[in-house]
Amino acid sequence: MIIGWILLAIAIVLEVAATICLRMASVGGSRWWYAGVGAGYFVSFSLLSLTLRTGIPLGVAYGIWAATGVALTALAGRALFKEKLTRKMLVGIGLILIGVLLIELGSSYA
Predict the structure, then answer these.
(1) Spatial CB neighbours of 51, under 8 Å, sequence gap ≥ 6
(2) Is 90 exceeded by the pLDDT of residue 76?
């Protein structure tokens, strides 16, 4: 089952990378950024599908994938693009992490 978690982690990283590419493309960067967007999202969703095949329930896998992606994207936006990250946003990221933990602990899979 460890392979499922590895696949999920890679899917999350690629989803965040694709979103960063989307940001780069949106500010007038090279059109090659769009290739990163398409490839990143395609491989990310494919790995999420493979994650589900390992037996991790949809609610757990998607919940972790989406919530972690949101949190990491906000942090990446701050680090890479100097986007605003307020205390309320940081509290929200903390709540996301708590929510992911509760989903994991509350699932019959855990």
Answers:
(1) 4, 7, 8, 11, 61, 65
(2) yes
Taking the domains of the chain in order of start, what are their residue ranges?
A: 2-106
pTM of the shown model: 0.89
State phi, psi for 47 to the nearest 5 degrees: -70, -35
Nearest to 78 by CA among 96, 8, 87: 87
Mean pLDDT lowest for which of 64-68, 76-80, 97-101?
Answer: 97-101
What number of H helices and E strands is found in the chain?
4, 0
How does residue 93 score in pLDDT terms, banded at 50, 70 and 90? very high
Q: Which amino acid is at 33?
A: W
| 15 burial type by CB count under 10 A (0-12 exposed, 13-18 middle, 19+ buried) | buried
What b/e readout covers 43-76, taking b as 16+ CB neighbours within 10 angstroms? bbeebbeebbeeebeeebbbbbbebbbbbbbbbb
